[in-house]
């Protein structure tokens, strides 16, 4: 059973697509959001959840006070589950998009993203994840101080970061490896 960990929808259950997804465990989501709370990046954030699956990561952000959340998945079944989850939770400011992650991030958003989740199938090649990060590094894609959470298999190589980006943290949870990355912040003079 997958459920929202905390916030306005805390404890509510989520539907999960019957196949083709690997939902982030509740334990890992709780750890991710604990770190994101430390970064103070969730409240009022503009959030992008790529490879959304059930929408658990983006919906967790919405439950915890994100201002706007976009759930993106290419699988019709996953998109329908996301829509049902949004409706059943009654969270506002969440939209669901059927598109390939690569195509979606190729168009700059009207408002830069503050928080991005990249949680693809583990068999997605590293070069594809690196391409998503490169697209997010385009001027106007993410806000200053944005955090991008990349979830991969522990056997995967670390993501190759675009020039001017840094690793904020890295943590393994069993088979899951989570990278927190983002644009380098200019240090005050």
From TrEMBL:
Annotated stretches, region: Disordered: 1-22
Phosphoprotein among keywords: no
Record key words, sorted: Methyltransferase, Transferase
Family annotation (InterPro entries): RNA_MeTrfase_RsmD (IPR004398), SAM-dependent_MTases_sf (IPR029063)
GO molecular function: methyltransferase activity
Keyword Plastid: no
Pfam families tied to this protein: Cons_hypoth95
Any one GO biological process: rRNA methylation
NCBIfam families documented for this protein: 16S rRNA (guanine(966)-N(2))-methyltransferase RsmD
Protein name, per record: 16S rRNA (Guanine966-N2)-methyltransferase
Classification lineage: Bacteria, Bacillati, Actinomycetota, Actinomycetes, Micrococcales
């Amino acid at each position: 059973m997958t459920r929202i960990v905390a916030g306005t929808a805390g404890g509510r259950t989520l539907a999960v697509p019957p196949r083709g997804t690997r939902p982030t465990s509740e334990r890992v989501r709780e750890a991710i959001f604990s770190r994101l709370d430390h970064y103070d990046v969730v409240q009022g954030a503009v959030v992008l959840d790529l490879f959304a699956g059930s929408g658990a990561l983006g919906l967790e952000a919405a439950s915890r006070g994100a201002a706007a959340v976009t759930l993106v998945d290419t699988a019709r079944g996953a998109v329908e589950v996301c829509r049902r989850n949004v409706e059943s939770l009654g969270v506002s400011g969440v939209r669901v998009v059927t598109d390939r992650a690569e195509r979606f991030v190729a168009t700059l958003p009207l408002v830069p993203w503050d928080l991005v989740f990249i949680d693809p199938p583990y068999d997605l090649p590293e070069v594809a994840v690196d391409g998503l990060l490169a697209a997010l590094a385009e001027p106007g894609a993410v806000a200053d101080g944005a955090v991008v959470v990349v979830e991969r298999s522990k056997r995967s190589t670390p993501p190759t970061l675009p020039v001017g980006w840094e690793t904020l943290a890295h943590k393994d949870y069993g088979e899951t490896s989570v990278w927190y990355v983002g644009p380098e912040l200019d240090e005050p003079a």
